[in-house]
Amino acid sequence: MAGDSRSWYNPIVDAYLTAEAGLILKAAERLSDSPQCGFLIGHRRGPRHFVESIVPAGADCLFSCAQVRILERLFEGRVAGFYIIGGGRGLKNRLLEPQACGKLLLVAGRGRDAALKAYTVEFDGRFRLSPIPLIAP
Fold first, then answer.
1. Domain boundaries along the sequence of the chain
2. Which pLDDT tens digit goes with each residue over 26-38?
3. Are the C-beta atoms of residues 81 and 99 closer than 8 Å to each other?
């Protein structure tokens, strides 16, 4: 169905969140009530995104090309993607740009919406978030 997000589900690609990275995400979520966002450090092997560490960037993270370049140099090309905790659609929309294409996005809400969800940023004439399976210990 056109417009149905399930039509963009990508079962071929998935994401693996290490225990250490998962703990850092939980700590970020529990230490602040304000939205949190930042960068995922890891690598991609075949169809799987591996998330090994997290770089918190605070609530005012822009996900800009300049920020991505700085971290790509610092972590030797291992920026695997981005995360958002408790943020709205506006934060997600910042990632619908070229610097995020092909990268992973982890999103968690607050309260009842606290489940962690994984997406890849894809481009097929326009940028979109494609849901993917998440493997987390």
1. 8-128
2. 888 888 788 888 9
3. no
Asked if 116 and 107 count as a contact pair (C-beta separation under 8 A), the reply is: yes
> What is the maximum span of the chain, computed from C-alpha positions, in angstroms?
42
Percent of residues, the chain, with pLDDT higher than 90: 52
> What's the token pair of residue 127?
């940028």
Give how far Cα 49 sits from Cα of 17, 88, 112, Å: 8, 24, 26
CATH number of 8-128: 3.40.140.10
Q: How many CB atoms lie within 10 A of CB 123?
A: 13
Query: By C-alpha distance, which of 86, 102, 77, 72 is closest to 37?
Result: 86
Q: Tell me what pLDDT residue 29 has.
A: 81
Buried b (16+ CB within 10 A) or exposed e, 24-48: bbeebbeeeeebbbbbbbbebeeeb
